[in-house]
Specification:
The chain is an alpha+beta fold. The protein has 7 helices and 4 strands, in the order H-H-E-E-E-E-H-H-H-H-H. The two termini are 41 Å apart.
Length: 201
């Protein structure tokens, strides 16, 4: 009998009523196609490993998702959301069992994913071009110029740290909010803090 992770049982039990039969069905299809599958939880949702990560599923408020780690190498699969598909995963937004391909087709995808892992084939990830440096808006530049310490720290920050502050300031919808964000930026930067320092361990 294949091993079952009780955390996945709990995940399915906590899912919305519409999602429970979908998740249960997908789980059974994976086990049927891949008897050696190992269940686990990654990134807070159920995943299935076979000689490495193979596929995973998730439930959301109004739909479920199911995707393959190497889905871009499996013929017949839609791209996942990161590659321009509809919804997360390779099967689109799944709201009912009727939205799923036939069991035999899903099992075929699982077997293709198994072969890729058996053969040690990896997905070649394209390197992203670095983002150009963000332009410091004049009002933020003026505030930095008035605070020597903040200016020095800001200039020493990596581009990504500077970009986080710039985007936060520029994203303000009202002048008052923008002014408050600039003042907060100067305070935090002078203390050597990143924009999201509160959320960092």
């Amino acid at each position: 009998m294949p091993s079952r992770d009780p955390r996945i049982d709990a995940y399915i039990a906590k899912a919305a009523p519409f999602a429970q039969p979908i998740l249960t069905h997908l789980r059974e299809v994976v086990h049927g196609a891949c008897p050696g599958v190992e269940e686990t939880v990654k990134w807070g949702s159920p995943h299935f490993d076979y000689k490495g990560i193979m596929c995973g599923m998730a439930a959301f408020k109004e739909h479920c998702a199911f995707g393959f780690w190497k889905g871009s190498l499996i013929p017949g699969l839609k791209p996942n959301s990161a590659n321009g598909g509809e919804g997360m995963g390779n099967l689109g937004c799944i709201r009912t069992l009727g939205d799923l391909p036939p069991k035999k087709e899903i099992a075929g995808f699982v077997k293709a994913a198994m072969r890729l892992n058996d053969e040690g084939i990896a997905v070649v990830k394209r390197k992203k071009a670095p983002k150009p440096a963000a332009d410091v808006p004049p009002d933020l530049a003026a505030a930095l110029a008035r605070n020597r310490k903040a200016r020095s720290v800001f200039e020493g920050f990596p581009p990504s740290y500077r970009r986080e502050y710039i985007e936060w300031v520029v994203g303000a919808k009202r002048d008052e909010t923008r002014a408050k964000r600039i003042a907060q930026t100067i305070e935090w930067v002078a203390e050597g803090k990143q924009r999201n320092w509160k959320y960092q361990a």
